[in-house]
Amino acid sequence: MQTQGFVALVSISASLLVVGIMLERRKGMSHLYKELETADLVSLNDQLSKLDIYKVQLENLLSKGTKIAEDEEKNVEEAVADVEKMKTEITICQEEKETKAEELAGKEHEHTEIEANLKSEHDAWNQEIANLRAQATGYRQICDFVKDDPTVKKMCGTKQETLLRRR
What we know:
This protein has one domain (2-166).
Protein backbone atom coordinates (compact mmCIF):
# COMPACT_ATOMS: atom_id res chain seq x y z
CA MET A 1 0.00 0.00 0.00
CA GLN A 2 2.76 2.17 0.43
CA THR A 3 3.48 2.05 -3.20
CA GLN A 4 -0.05 2.85 -3.94
CA GLY A 5 0.07 5.75 -1.53
CA PHE A 6 3.26 6.86 -3.08
CA VAL A 7 1.86 6.59 -6.60
CA ALA A 8 -1.28 8.38 -5.45
CA LEU A 9 0.79 11.08 -3.85
CA VAL A 10 2.92 11.45 -6.97
CA SER A 11 -0.25 11.46 -9.09
CA ILE A 12 -1.88 14.07 -6.93
CA SER A 13 1.33 16.11 -6.92
CA ALA A 14 1.62 15.80 -10.69
CA SER A 15 -2.04 16.72 -11.08
CA LEU A 16 -1.61 19.72 -8.81
CA LEU A 17 1.50 20.68 -10.73
CA VAL A 18 -0.35 20.41 -14.04
CA VAL A 19 -3.31 22.39 -12.60
CA GLY A 20 -0.85 25.02 -11.31
CA ILE A 21 0.86 25.24 -14.71
CA MET A 22 -2.52 25.56 -16.41
CA LEU A 23 -3.56 28.32 -14.03
CA GLU A 24 -0.27 30.12 -14.64
CA ARG A 25 -0.72 29.81 -18.36
CA ARG A 26 -4.27 31.07 -18.08
CA LYS A 27 -3.00 34.09 -16.12
CA GLY A 28 -0.26 34.59 -18.71
CA MET A 29 -2.77 34.29 -21.55
CA SER A 30 -5.17 36.71 -19.91
CA HIS A 31 -2.24 39.08 -19.33
CA LEU A 32 -1.27 38.70 -23.02
CA TYR A 33 -4.87 39.30 -24.07
CA LYS A 34 -4.98 42.46 -21.96
CA GLU A 35 -1.68 43.65 -23.48
CA LEU A 36 -2.96 42.84 -26.97
CA GLU A 37 -6.21 44.65 -26.23
CA THR A 38 -4.25 47.63 -24.89
CA ALA A 39 -2.01 47.61 -27.98
CA ASP A 40 -5.09 47.43 -30.20
CA LEU A 41 -6.65 50.33 -28.30
CA VAL A 42 -3.44 52.36 -28.62
CA SER A 43 -3.28 51.55 -32.33
CA LEU A 44 -6.95 52.44 -32.77
CA ASN A 45 -6.41 55.63 -30.78
CA ASP A 46 -3.45 56.55 -33.02
CA GLN A 47 -5.52 55.83 -36.11
CA LEU A 48 -8.37 57.89 -34.70
CA SER A 49 -5.97 60.78 -34.02
CA LYS A 50 -4.63 60.56 -37.56
CA LEU A 51 -8.18 60.45 -38.93
CA ASP A 52 -9.10 63.49 -36.84
CA ILE A 53 -6.08 65.36 -38.20
CA TYR A 54 -6.98 64.23 -41.72
CA LYS A 55 -10.59 65.36 -41.16
CA VAL A 56 -9.42 68.81 -40.00
CA GLN A 57 -7.14 69.10 -43.04
CA LEU A 58 -9.98 68.07 -45.36
CA GLU A 59 -12.31 70.60 -43.74
CA ASN A 60 -9.66 73.31 -44.21
CA LEU A 61 -9.21 72.32 -47.84
CA LEU A 62 -12.97 72.27 -48.32
CA SER A 63 -13.34 75.77 -46.87
CA LYS A 64 -10.47 77.04 -49.03
CA GLY A 65 -11.96 75.34 -52.09
CA THR A 66 -15.38 76.81 -51.33
CA LYS A 67 -13.89 80.29 -50.96
CA ILE A 68 -11.96 79.90 -54.22
CA ALA A 69 -15.10 78.63 -55.97
CA GLU A 70 -17.09 81.63 -54.70
CA ASP A 71 -14.35 84.02 -55.83
CA GLU A 72 -14.21 82.37 -59.24
CA GLU A 73 -17.99 82.49 -59.51
CA LYS A 74 -17.84 86.25 -58.86
CA ASN A 75 -15.07 86.55 -61.48
CA VAL A 76 -17.17 84.59 -63.97
CA GLU A 77 -20.18 86.81 -63.30
CA GLU A 78 -18.03 89.91 -63.83
CA ALA A 79 -16.56 88.42 -67.00
CA VAL A 80 -20.05 87.60 -68.31
CA ALA A 81 -21.13 91.18 -67.59
CA ASP A 82 -18.02 92.49 -69.37
CA VAL A 83 -18.69 90.21 -72.35
CA GLU A 84 -22.30 91.40 -72.57
CA LYS A 85 -21.12 95.01 -72.40
CA MET A 86 -18.55 94.32 -75.12
CA LYS A 87 -21.21 92.64 -77.28
CA THR A 88 -23.34 95.76 -76.98
CA GLU A 89 -20.36 97.96 -77.83
CA ILE A 90 -19.49 95.72 -80.80
CA THR A 91 -23.07 95.93 -82.07
CA ILE A 92 -23.03 99.71 -81.77
CA CYS A 93 -19.62 99.87 -83.43
CA GLN A 94 -20.74 97.66 -86.31
CA GLU A 95 -23.84 99.79 -86.84
CA GLU A 96 -21.68 102.93 -86.87
CA LYS A 97 -19.26 101.21 -89.23
CA GLU A 98 -22.09 100.37 -91.63
CA THR A 99 -23.37 103.94 -91.45
CA LYS A 100 -19.90 105.33 -92.09
CA ALA A 101 -19.39 102.84 -94.94
CA GLU A 102 -22.64 104.01 -96.54
CA GLU A 103 -21.58 107.65 -96.10
CA LEU A 104 -18.17 106.86 -97.54
CA ALA A 105 -19.70 105.06 -100.51
CA GLY A 106 -21.88 108.12 -101.19
CA LYS A 107 -18.88 110.45 -100.90
CA GLU A 108 -16.78 108.20 -103.15
CA HIS A 109 -19.55 108.13 -105.76
CA GLU A 110 -19.84 111.91 -105.54
CA HIS A 111 -16.05 112.21 -105.81
CA THR A 112 -16.02 109.95 -108.87
CA GLU A 113 -18.73 112.04 -110.54
CA ILE A 114 -16.90 115.28 -109.72
CA GLU A 115 -13.65 113.83 -111.02
CA ALA A 116 -15.36 112.73 -114.26
CA ASN A 117 -16.91 116.21 -114.68
CA LEU A 118 -13.56 117.88 -113.98
CA LYS A 119 -11.84 115.61 -116.50
CA SER A 120 -14.40 116.36 -119.19
CA GLU A 121 -14.13 120.10 -118.46
CA HIS A 122 -10.33 119.80 -118.42
CA ASP A 123 -10.37 118.03 -121.77
CA ALA A 124 -12.75 120.66 -123.20
CA TRP A 125 -10.51 123.48 -121.96
CA ASN A 126 -7.41 121.75 -123.33
CA GLN A 127 -9.17 121.41 -126.69
CA GLU A 128 -10.15 125.08 -126.57
CA ILE A 129 -6.54 126.03 -125.69
CA ALA A 130 -5.26 123.90 -128.58
CA ASN A 131 -7.75 125.55 -130.96
CA LEU A 132 -6.81 129.03 -129.75
CA ARG A 133 -3.11 128.21 -130.00
CA ALA A 134 -3.64 126.99 -133.56
CA GLN A 135 -5.50 130.17 -134.36
CA ALA A 136 -2.83 132.31 -132.72
CA THR A 137 0.05 130.65 -134.53
CA GLY A 138 -1.73 130.02 -137.81
CA TYR A 139 -2.10 132.35 -140.71
CA ARG A 140 -5.23 134.42 -140.44
CA GLN A 141 -7.03 135.74 -143.46
CA ILE A 142 -7.36 139.14 -141.91
CA CYS A 143 -3.62 139.49 -142.38
CA ASP A 144 -4.25 139.75 -146.12
CA PHE A 145 -6.08 142.98 -145.57
CA VAL A 146 -3.73 144.79 -143.19
CA LYS A 147 -1.09 147.25 -144.24
CA ASP A 148 2.46 146.24 -144.80
CA ASP A 149 3.78 147.25 -141.47
CA PRO A 150 6.78 145.36 -140.01
CA THR A 151 5.04 144.86 -136.68
CA VAL A 152 1.94 143.51 -138.35
CA LYS A 153 4.00 141.25 -140.59
CA LYS A 154 5.79 139.97 -137.55
CA MET A 155 2.47 139.14 -135.88
CA CYS A 156 0.86 137.69 -138.96
CA GLY A 157 3.83 136.08 -140.58
CA THR A 158 3.51 134.57 -144.00
CA LYS A 159 1.43 131.68 -145.20
CA GLN A 160 4.54 129.57 -145.65
CA GLU A 161 5.90 130.25 -142.15
CA THR A 162 2.58 129.32 -140.70
CA LEU A 163 2.53 126.05 -142.60
CA LEU A 164 6.08 125.28 -141.44
CA ARG A 165 5.19 126.00 -137.82
CA ARG A 166 2.27 123.63 -137.96
CA ARG A 167 4.46 120.74 -139.01
